[in-house]
Amino acid sequence: MSIQHLLEDFADGLAKDASPSSEQEDTELLESFEQGYKAGWEDAVRAKSEEQTHVSAELARNLEDLSFTYHEAHAAILAEIAPVVEQAVMAVVPEIARAGFGMQVAAEITRLTGQDNNGEILLRVAAEDLNAVEDLLPDSASLPTRVEIDETLTAGQAQLAFGHRERRIDVAEIVASVSEAFSGLVQQAQKGTRP
């Protein structure tokens, strides 16, 4: 005996579902699925783009902060160390300049005369510098040098005259220019530390 009479027959329902209205519903369902998929895809692309923009902006901000931090640290270190270096250099430079004064005068005489060996060199110096300068003058019979003491000059100053050419050497000016350069460095460093 068959149990078919106990089971419900769905064949009639399938035939009804295969009707044209059912196909239209399937098309609408498929179109709504595609629209939902497109909307989801567009949302994902927009979210990824916003994330990349956010990451790029954050990276740029961090690099800018890092750059400011580096420049602030550099300026702060320079501001701290510049006065110490200036003091150390300015303690040594005057002594080096005074010790090398005679050599500066001798070198300037050589530059001043060049290839021209005609005439006499007149060198005026302060009394304190006379021995230092005389010891370093070029020993050349073809280049006579007359050294005079000039009371208007101070230690570290000299005036050279050779024909119509003249030169002035002033150790104090050299030291002052070095001091000015270091003062400018200190000021620049202090500008860098101000907000």
Question: What is this entry, summarized?
Answer:
This protein has 195 residues and is an alpha+beta fold. The protein has 5 helices and 4 strands, in the order H-H-H-E-H-E-E-E-H.
Helix-strand blueprint:
Elements: H1 11-17, H2 20-99, H3 101-113, E1 121-125, H4 130-136, E2 145-149, E3 157-162, E4 165-170, H5 171-193
Parallel strand pairs: 1-2
Antiparallel strand pairs: 1-3, 3-4
Give me the count of strands: 4
Order of helices and strands: HHHEHEEEH
* Biggest sheet record: 4 strands, mixed
Shape: rod-shaped
Major sheet strand order: 2-1-3-4
| Parts with pLDDT < 50 across at least 5 consecutive residues | none
What fraction of residues sit in β-strands? 5-15%
The total of helices stands at: 5
Into which percent range does the helicity of residues fall?
Answer: 55-70%
Rg, rounded, reads 47 Å
Q: What structural class do helix, strand and pairing data support?
A: alpha+beta
Overall pLDDT level? 78
Distance between the termini: 101 Å
Tell me what you see in this structure.
- By secondary structure, the protein is α+β, with helices and mostly antiparallel strands.
- The chain has a domain at 100-163.
- The chain has helices at 11-17, 20-99, 101-113, 130-136, 171-193, and strands at 121-125, 145-149, 157-162, 165-170.
- It has a four-stranded mixed beta sheet.
- Helix 2 runs antiparallel to helix 5 and helix 3 packs across helix 4.
- The longest helix has 80 residues, at 20-99.
- The mean pLDDT is 78.
List keywords for this structure.
5 helices; four-stranded mixed beta sheet; 4 strands; about 200 residues; alpha+beta
